[in-house]
Design brief:
alpha+beta; five-stranded mixed beta barrel; about 25% strand; globular
Length: about 600
């Protein structure tokens, strides 16, 4: 026999009845039933039930060991009786009658249990992550992550992409977050940076003529933790294509993303491709966000004309400012005063003065706004919004740039309260036509809205002839269920367009050369039009695993303070190492307790 196992703990079936087998694994659970000892033996592949009686040679070994001890057993496969079959286990029609048993590693008393799904403090779980990873749900998530990455690689290769690895030790890059810096021993006083993204390298690969690149790329950013991003590092499907338009990128990526989600959706609906394209300004106006959750059927609408010049006096006064607007948030099925008052109280708890409303009953609108508008205007408004008796509509008013975020939150809250959100589906869309520039309200300065290296729609002519605030960029986000999976763009590959684009944002040619000279130099030697994107692996797996916490799909995550509690990092280093790196510490004074 092999030294440890003839089968895994997930392999045996009824067809193996009578076989002599050897299994190794962890004691998942023990149960003593009137002298018979039942043990669930677990490994990576599954569970097998063992049964031992006091006369069996291995009984004493199994009886004295704690849960999570590692054992090897020899035994015989027997069929379970019909009333003891476990349909929830792949091995549920059999059990193994134990003969011999050997303790391979006895477990000490556990700091947290592995059996079941206990709600233990996250700090404790991260400190003993190797135990936490034994739990079924977490183990399953990590395996899912591996399978997702394997599927992505296969799909990208089939789509004609070649996988390349780009440097980890590199130069600091203006990606918008802080770099992690690595001191150089052989170049005193100089530092490498860990890449925030392989952006410049992947573009240089296009300049080098490789045409289609991808990588499961680690990215490092010294930023605070978020629910959907680990502090320190994350992974993304980084890709770039030469001689590609925006539509070429979409047409290439949609089958990959759709196929990936369909493979792991377990029957959940996935948006067929082509995915909807929603212009940025339309997304803001309809959903209050550029990351809309399309499972939510509520679509907001500008209803300013119904209030302009009279009717409800508060809104009429607000609309005297030509930049102001009134947006309606329909609430199908929300037509009761109790629900409307509850939403108004929620808005006040969010720091708003309230949330105006009309609810419809007995063929007419009710509430203060309806009384101000009058029957005729209320009826026109109801018809325009497609509402009926038993429905309601809520209103936000003021400057859209100031209230749009709250309006989006209200849309989400209303649909959640009324159970309108589609369950169990993945709804994709592209957000397109992002503005190239925006005005800083404090300084009045024109600034880049998003990625400064994107190609402006209309190219150099648009930069030279249009109002900068009207120029759109070839930038796009792919969004699923309200989660931004990636940002992407068709790149600005021409130095003359780049100089002009940065000049509008207040950069001199010398500043552009100083900060981006390497890329500009490469573009001067012949650069193809190119574009790409970088969907986040972590966010994809979070959606497929149906978990809102990124630490549930990463094997060894940091906590929210960017600490690795398992490996005790970050940690001080000996003075001799600092001296070797020519570093002297200038630490802040300790915080008072």
């Amino acid at each position: 026999m092999p030294p440890y196992r003839t089968h895994t703990c997930g392999a045996l079936r009824l067809a193996d009845e009578g076989a002599k087998v050897r299994l190794s694994g962890w004691i998942h659970r023990k149960r003593d039933h009137g002298g018979l000892l039942f043990v669930d033996l677990r490994d990576h592949y599954g569970l097998t039930q063992l049964v031992a009686s006091p006369e069996d040679p291995g009984f004493a070994v199994l009886d004295r060991l704690r849960a999570e001890s590692v054992v090897r057993i020899d035994g015989s496969v027997v069929a379970r009786t019909a009333d003891t079959v476990n349909p929830n286990l792949a091995t549920g029609e059999i059990e193994v009658r134990v003969g011999e048993a050997d303790a391979l590693s006895a477990a000490a008393e556990l700091p947290l249990p592995v059996f079941g799904e206990p709600d233990y403090p996250e700090e404790l779980r991260l400190k003993y992550r190797y135990l936490d990873l034994r739990r079924d749900s977490l183990h399953r998530n990590i395996v899912l992550r591996s399978r997702v990455i394997d599927s992505i690689r296969r799909r990208m290769t089939r789509a004609g992409f070649t996988e390349f690895q780009t440097p980890i030790l590199t130069a600091s890059s203006p990606e918008g977050a802080r770099d992690y810096l690595v001191p150089s021993r052989v170049h005193p006083g100089k530092f490498y940076a860990l890449p925030q993204a392989p952006q410049q390298f992947k573009q240089l690969l296009m300049v080098a003529g490789f045409d289609r690149y991808f990588q499961i790329a680690p990215c490092f950013r010294d930023e605070d933790a978020r629910a959907d991003r680990s502090p320190g590092e994350f992974y993304q499907l980084d890709l770039e294509m030469s001689f590609a338009t925006q539509e070429d990128v979409f047409a290439t990526m949609e089958p990959v993303i759709h196929g990936l989600f369909e493979e792991f959706a377990e029957g959940r609906a996935v948006t067929p491709h082509p995915f909807p394209r929603i212009p940025y300004r339309e997304a803001i106006a309809k959903y209050g966000t550029d990351k809309p959750d399309l499972r939510n059927p509520i679509v907001m609408q500008d209803v300013s004309e119904h209030f302009r010049g009279g009717g409800f006096s508060l809104f009429a006064r607000i609309l005297e400012d030509p930049k102001a607007a009134v947006w309606a948030i329909p609430a199908p099925g929300g037509g009761s005063r109790a629900f409307c008052d509850r939403m108004n109280s929620w808005a006040q708890a969010e720091g708003q003065p309230g949330l105006g409303y009309i609810f419809f009953r007995d063929g007419e609108g009710a509430g203060p706004i309806a009384r101000g508008l009058g029957t005729e205007r209320s009826e026109r408004l109801r018809g325009e919004l497609g509402l009926k008796d038993g429905d309601a509509v809520f209103f936000v008013a003021g400057l859209p740039n100031e209230f749009r975020q709250f309006a989006g939150l209200a849309r989400t809250r209303i649909s959640t309260e009324l159970a309108l959100v589609e369950q169990g589906g993945f709804r994709f869309c592209w957000i397109v036509d992002f503005p190239m520039y925006e005005r800083n309200e404090e300084t009045g300065q024109i600034e880049f809205s998003h990625n400064p290296f994107s190609m402006p729609q209309g190219g150099l002519e648009a930069l030279e002839t249009k109002d900068p605030l009207s120029i759109l960029a070839f930038q796009y986000d792919i969004v699923c269920n309200g989660v931004e999976l990636s940002s992407g763009a068709i790149r600005n590959h021409r130095p003359d367009i780049m100089y002009k684009a940065f000049a509008i944002a207040g950069y001199s040619p010398a500043e552009v050369e100083a900060r981006f000279g390497g890329m500009l130099k490469a573009f001067r030697y012949g650069a193809p039009p190119h574009g790409g994107s970088a969907p986040g692996i972590d966010r994809i797996v979070m959606l497929l695993a149906d978990t809102p916490n990124i630490r549930e799909i990463v094997a060894f995550p940091m906590n929210q303070q960017a600490e690795d509690l398992l490996m005790r990092a970050p940690a001080p280093v000996p003075p001799e190492r600092l001296k070797e790196l020519h570093i002297k510490l200038d630490l802040p004074p300790p915080k008072p307790r």
